[in-house]
Amino acid sequence: xxxxxxxxxxxxxxxxxxxxxxxxxxxxxxxxxxxxxxxxxxxxxxxxxxxxxxxxxxxxxxxxxxxxxxxxxxxxxxxxxxxxxxxxxxxxxxxxxxxxxxxxxxxxxxxx
Length: 112
Fold this sequence. Notes:
By secondary structure, this protein is mainly beta. The chain has strands spanning 2-6, 9-11, 17-24, 33-38, 45-50, 57-59, 67-72, 77-82, 91-97, 101-102, 106-110.
């Protein structure tokens, strides 16, 4: 399975971005999918989760109410919609399929 994240970039505080994670090699419909992030000098942390089936989702407290995870199984892609971005959201964002599969990340920088 190959996962490729995209959509990162520089955004001002209060702005929005939508990250994508496109998968190849296996259908994401069989995996619970997750987004993680790693800020400079910090450990990687879990951000959001979306289950198979009914698409139940969950979020870390730091992003709850601002971020939204979704999946489009027909495009073999998941998304992370990020709103009201803060400088503390600056990090490399990674997607994960099931347990073993990780993308290489996309950098999000929130700065004025």
